[in-house]
Specification:
Elements: E1 4-10, H1 17-25, E2 32-38, H2 45-55, E3 59-63, H3 70-80, E4 85-88, E5 94-95, H4 99-110, E6 114-123, E7 128-129, H5 134-139, E8 162-165, H6 166-172, H7 184-193, E9 197-209, H8 225-240, H9 245-264, H10 274-288, H11 299-310, H12 313-357, E10 362-369, H13 378-390, E11 395-400, E12 414-416, H14 420-428, E13 429-434, E14 449-452, H15 478-485, E15 490-493, H16 496-505, E16 511-514, H17 521-524, H18 528-538, E17 545-550, H19 566-573, E18 577-581, E19 598-600, H20 607-613, E20 616-619, H21 624-628, E21 635-638, H22 642-649, E22 662-664, H23 667-675, H24 682-695, H25 703-712
Length: 717
């Protein structure tokens, strides 16, 4: 028997259908079928379905005899489904990578009759809202009934976030009713009747918030159909379950909440029909009020419930108008106060900064920053550590942005960016060391030394060299970029290649320190014991092959889109491997499965720990390859979009012609490299040796010392 049937009702979704189908058919989990119901769609949706069915046998198309509507179309799909479980996915939404595999694993773990999965809301303008139910789903027991965990009734009552055992549906005869809001009369009875419910607090569904075409944004009296569906839901709840007083109270409260939302927020009840809609709502309140009562919401929402109970629509209108105006005024006051506070702080900071600039330079102060003030890391951290050893007369202070201040290591002296101590430090520091540029308004004082350490050997074009590749440029003001670079006294480079690249990227009058990368000193001197300790800190069991995956950022991909399904790849690696996934800091973190097979290390503070723990690095175009090569361990390049990256970003050399190891441009080839061991064969080792000769010759464990002696002691030793 097929494990999962995905029922896909299709009607007027030609603009979204391909994305939906692609998200299903590209999943690593394959034991599923798609029962696509062509609900007599008048657009090209039917042709798209036929195209996909012709090339993939997992897609079966059922054509409705007439336009049935969403609920009845789902019923038709259910009649043709053969899977153990059924998932009613909406055809304008799409699934996240690894969603089917995660869902199947959870169902097998719990043997649930009903699984409720997580989702996010993706707006038409690109905004993404993380699922508001994620915390609730995570707080649920492993397996429960509604009586055991009634809070499940507060989770969004739709069909597409639920995977249901098909035999359970057929045995009880659950089907969708016709009309708008058909989810109500399906979801609540199914939840109440299910003996075994479980949850998956992972984003599985990307819930599209359409600009046009959504039922909840359509004006009309069909919104009155919500009452019939709630009547039917309550009847079925009594038929298939014996709700406790607590469950009855929560169900009633949810019903009134839904009515108010349809009237006030989501829907478009015609103005002339709103009093009548409220009257029907009030009747439902009086008819179905539980004898034991219900938990009344607090504050303004509770006031609305009381007005529904009293049947006073005029009072509700006046109340909502007053609350709306008060909230609007509060928002305006808050925004104005926030703007005044920010401007006052900025002006005060700049005035204070200008005053501090007139005071003597603090000859003992060395100010450090890294990655836009994210904390202690990278080359500045290595230089600061060596300076503490060789130049103890200097006082090191780090600049950190407010969101990262709490994560600063204990005992590290730091100032928070934008505060008065920060302005005093940047105005009076003798030495300023950073791996990115300091803010635009910072003044380069006479008698101070600015050290730019950079944070990677460049494959992609940087600085002024980006002018020939404008598609990926985030800061097109190259004159301002160069003004910031003009403040550098020293530019630290890792190798002759980088020295040459920076010559054209930053045509400024600084001195180049071609000394190797300080952050790689730890890698150059690492021992087997260091690697074992790094694995221990990450909780990786001994004897496992560790693959570290570090993709770079792609400006042209939508946020959240990945080029590699990490869960699927982890399965391909086999049971004796662990895949560490570290996303680029510009990328919204994905949600890889947690456990021995895949570990998300995107937030791990020290990347060198990850290098030491890994047996092999898997990357695409990240500068991590240049650092990891210092360890002389296998590196695999997965470059499925190399021509795009090369042409859009611009590159300093042909990575595929001069790779640091084995290369794959297709997923099947990538899997093959690991399964047959060729990622570590003689050919890969020879490529790595050539790569190391070109890029790692200066990484001998003493780069930080060379920088410290040159900067703080003015020697070249």
């Amino acid at each position: 028997m097929t494990f999962l049937s995905i029922v896909l009702p299709v009607y007027k979704v030609q603009g979204y259908l391909r994305q939906c189908l692609d998200s299903l058919l590209s999943q690593s989990f394959t034991d599923f079928e798609i029962v696509a119901v062509d609900d007599r769609s008048p657009d090209y949706s039917g042709a798209i379905l036929a195209e996909y069915a012709a090339r993939d046998p997992r897609v079966r198309v059922v054509t409705a005899p007439e336009n049935l509507g969403l609920g009845r179309a789902r019923n038709l799909g259910l009649e043709h489904a053969t899977g153990e479980y059924v998932w009613f996915v909406d055809s304008d939404d799409w699934l996240s990578e690894g969603a089917l595999n995660a869902t199947a694993e959870r169902l097998r773990e719990t043997d649930a009759d009903l699984l409720i999965v997580g989702w996010d809301r993706v707006h038409w303008d690109g905004r993404v809202q993380a699922g508001t139910a994620r915390k609730s789903l995570a707080a649920a027991p492993d397996v429960f009934s509604v009586e055991q965990w009634p809070k499940v009734l507060n989770i969004l009552h739709v069909a597409w976030n639920k995977v249901v055992r098909r035999e359970f549906l057929l045995r009880l005869g659950f089907v969708f009713e016709a009309g708008w809001y058909e989810d109500v009369s399906f979801s609540f009875p199914v939840m109440l009747a299910a003996p075994r419910i479980s949850t998956l607090p992972r984003t599985c569904v990307h819930y599209r918030q359409r600009r046009t075409g959504a039922i909840t944004r359509t004006v009309g009296d069909r919104h009155f159909e919500v009452f019939d569906h709630w009547e039917h839901a309550l009847d079925l709840a009594t038929k298939y379950a014996s709700p406790t007083d607590e469950v009855r109270g929560l169900l009633f409260r949810r019903m009134i909440w839904h009515f108010l939302r349809v009237l006030r927020h989501d829907a478009r009840v015609p103005r002339e029909s709103r009093a009548r809609f409220f009257g029907r709502m009030s009747e439902m309140y009086k008819t179905h009020l539980p004898p034991a009562g219900y938990p009344l919401p607090a504050r303004t929402e509770g006031m609305r419930y009381r007005m529904v109970a009293g049947g006073s629509y005029r009072s509700l209108r006046v109340f909502d108008f007053a609350v709306g105006r008060a909230r609007q005024a509060k928002r305006l006051v808050r925004r104005a106060a926030g703007w005044v506070k920010r401007r006052t702080r900025q002006v005060a900071g700049q005035v204070y900064y200008r005053v501090q600039l007139r005071l003597p330079v603090d000859q003992s102060l060395a100010l450090y920053g890294a990655y836009w003030f994210r904390g202690v890391s990278c080359n500045p951290a290595a230089i600061a550590a060596k300076a503490a050893e060789l130049a103890p007369h200097l006082r090191p202070v780090w600049v950190v942005a407010e969101p990262y201040a709490k994560a600063m290591p204990a005992g590290v002296d730091h100032v928070v960016a934008g505060t008065l101590p920060y302005y005093r430090a940047v105005a009076r520091a003798r030495y300023l060391v950073n791996n990115v540029n300091w803010p635009n308004r910072l003044v380069k004082r006479r008698g101070t030394t600015h050290v730019m350490t950079h944070h990677g050997t460049p494959l992609k074009k940087m600085g002024a060299d980006q002018a020939d590749h404008p598609a990926a440029v985030k800061d097109p003001d190259f004159r301002a970029q160069m003004r910031r670079a003009d403040r550098w006294d020293y530019s630290v480079t890792a190798n002759p290649f980088t020295t040459v690249a920076w010559e054209s990227a930053y045509p400024c009058s600084h001195e180049t320190l071609e000394v190797g990368y300080p952050r790689n000193d730890r890698l150059a001197t690492a021992t087997a014991a260091d690697s074992a300790a790094a694995r221990g800190r990450l909780g990786i069991p001994a004897g496992r092959r560790v693959v570290l995956y570090m993709p770079t950022h792609r400006e042209w991909l939508p946020d959240g889109r990945r080029v590699l399904d990490t869960e699927r790849f982890a399965e391909e690696l086999g049971p004796d491997s662990t895949l560490l996934v570290r996303e680029h800091y510009f990328t919204t973190p994905a949600e890889p499965a947690s456990g021995a097979a895949v570990v998300d290390v995107s937030d791990h503070p020290v990347v060198e720990d990850l290098y030491l723990a890994a047996d092999v690095l898997l990357t695409d175009y990240s500068s991590a390859m240049f650092d990891f090569a210092v360890l002389n361990r296998p590196i695999v390049i997965f470059a499925p979009d190399w021509p795009v990256y090369r042409d859009v970003r611009g590159v300093y050399f042909d990575l595929l012609a001069e790779p640091p190891g084995a290369v794959a441009t297709e997923y099947a080839a990538l899997v093959g490299l690991f399964q047959n061991g060729s990622y570590a064969d003689e050919s890969a080792a020879a490529a790595r040796a050539s790569f190391r000769t070109r890029f790692c010759s200066l990484d001998d464990g003493h780069a930080a010392e060379r920088v410290v002696r040159r900067i703080f002691f003015d020697t070249n030793q």
